[in-house]
Hints:
This protein is an alpha/beta fold and 195 residues long. The chain has one domain: Alpha-Beta Complex (DHBP synthase). The protein is 32% helix and 20% strand. The protein has seven helices and ten strands. Strands 1, 2, 3, 4, 5, 6, 7, 8, 9 and 10 form a ten-stranded mixed β-sheet that branches. Helix 1 packs across helix 5 (113-120).
Amino acid sequence: MLTRDLNKIAIALKNAKVVAFPTDTVYGLICNAFEDRAKREIYKLKGRSFNKPLGIFIGKKRDIERYAHVNENAKKLIRKFFPGALTLILKSKIKGKYIVKEGNIAIRMPKHKTLLLLLKKISFPLAQTSANISGKKEATSYKEVRGYFGNKVLIYKGKCGKLKPSTIVDLTNGIKVIRESTINKDEILRCLRKN
């Protein structure tokens, strides 16, 4: 059942569809990170400003070096918090409409068993953002996602993790905590102080 369902989702993503999927934080809207049509659909569904780039999900720690320049601070945080509820903003190695802004890209490796299984089934990273209408509460259940989007997206029914969005740290010019959440600023700074 699980394999069949994930195969169905993987095919939908390969065909430039948008999917709502549970993560280790909240429900996310995901699509092929290299399909501009699908990424535009996410913006349309959310009513999101095109000035706000989407993040990407990767399935393996080593994948981060394919898409971003990894500095020493990033390496420390990756060792400690990947997979997990931490998004890193790094200098991008790729060009990508809607995911790269001013040469930067936001990357996370989720700590969610089913989502990681899905990422193993595809050969591309996933553009992602929380499954909600912009300005509204992030969806943490199938019912909430259905309430926001009705039948406009394929929804994978499953459980989320911490029910809070990820912590975001910008490492492109020093260290800047953009959003503090389940991983707090003190934890980040303690990790970075270690040799």
